[in-house]
């Protein structure tokens, strides 16, 4: 019992060290934007309730500057961006 | 597919609908055809209809349905999708048949076909995409073009004295006895997209339940031919277009006439 408690304590101390305050993961969701399929219509940018998406500078093979997942820490995984995207190039995980 | 990057996000909340083919679409940036394709594909998946669906596509940007939705599609002459769909449905009544048409197609060239298909109460579902212009052929005036809208055939803006008024197809078809369901939706905001899904589900349920003809009119953008950025085009749909073409349900039959 004693050993177990120490181990548990040790583990939580270690994980806190691995994630110092301020860099802890606060997001509850994550999206992935298909860089090659995005046509930079910007419809997802105002659709995101948390303003996580912005427009990038890198140009894809179609000639469009794809949208990028700028602030992953605020993402809640609500999937509104994915529903809005006309090209179905956003995937969402929660 | 596994979750990317950080651990802990393992549940896929949104992926491509299974009935939507995993290819790049040819539509212009910001065109709502892609969103409408997704909604239709999701509804086909929801009722497990993929193996028994036959779509009918006409001429226009809507014709490339057969490249993007993974069902059998018949290509019909311009405007004649409801007539071809009537034949398909009568020959194979156990199949799920829907047409996917634009406004130049359904409201101009195919007016006769759509009105008579609705009047006969054919058990079909019609997806009607209204972007107030002929998109594919270069932005000519369609019957749904707004008054004052500049197109390549109305360079000074549409004038009712020479060109008439925009047709409200959803209301017109709701006035026919054979129509079971008629609604107009938009897909410019997330809330509208969810309402649109609900309307397409209802339209599909009408056909599954044998209630008769159902139509869902989508207010769509055409940023290229309107000469607007996609976000400005969406604002036009929410403002000017929604005023003249109010979204809503105009007819919903509660029980089949021939029950």
Describe this structure in words.
The complex is a heterodimer of chains A (94) and B (259). Chain A has 94 residues and is an alpha+beta fold. Chain A has one domain (26-93): Alpha-Beta Plaits (2-Layer Sandwich). Chain A has three helices and four strands; from the N terminus they run H-E-H-E-E-H-E. Chain A has helices at residues 2-18, 44-47, 80-84; strands spanning 30-33, 53-59, 65-69, 90-93. In chain A, strands 1-4 form a two-stranded antiparallel ribbon. A two-stranded antiparallel ribbon of chain A has the order 2-3. In chain A, strand 2 and strand 3 form a beta hairpin. The longest helix of chain A is centred in the N-terminal third of the chain and has 17 residues, at 2-18. Residues 1-20 of chain A have low confidence and may be disordered. With 259 residues, chain B is an alpha/beta fold. Chain B has one domain: Rossmann fold (3-Layer(aba) Sandwich), CATH 3.40.50. Chain B has ten helices and eight strands. Chain B has helices at residues 33-46, 65-68, 81-91, 103-109, 111-119, 160-163, 169-174, 190-208, 223-226, 230-244; strands at 12-14, 53-57, 72-75, 96-102, 125-130, 179-186, 213-219, 248-252. Chain B has a seven-stranded mixed sheet, with helices on both faces. In chain B, helix 2 links the parallel strand 2 (53-57) and strand 3 (72-75). Chain B is globular, with a radius of gyration of 18 Å. The mean pLDDT of chain B is 92. The interface between A and B is medium-sized, with 31 and 37 residues.
CATH superfamily of chain B: Thiamin diphosphate (ThDP)-binding fold, Pyr/PP domains
Q: State the major sheet of chain A.
A: 2 strands, antiparallel
Question: What oligomeric state best describes the polypeptide chains here?
Answer: heterodimer
Domain module count of chain B? 1
| Structural class designation of chain A | alpha+beta
Report the radius of gyration of chain A as a whole number of Å.
18 Å
Named CATH topology of chain B: Rossmann fold
Task: Return the domain count of chain A.
Answer: 1
Q: Which secondary-structure class do the elements of chain B indicate?
A: alpha/beta
User: Please, how many helices of chain A?
Assistant: 3
Cα-based radius of gyration of chain B, to the nearest Å: 18 Å
- Determine the mean pLDDT of chain A: 80
| Residues in helix, % of chain A | 25-40%
CATH class of chain A: Alpha Beta
Number of helices of chain B: 10
Most extensive protein-chain contact, per-chain counts: A-B, 31 and 37 residues
Shape field of chain B? globular
Number of strands of chain A: 4
Low-confidence regions of chain B = none
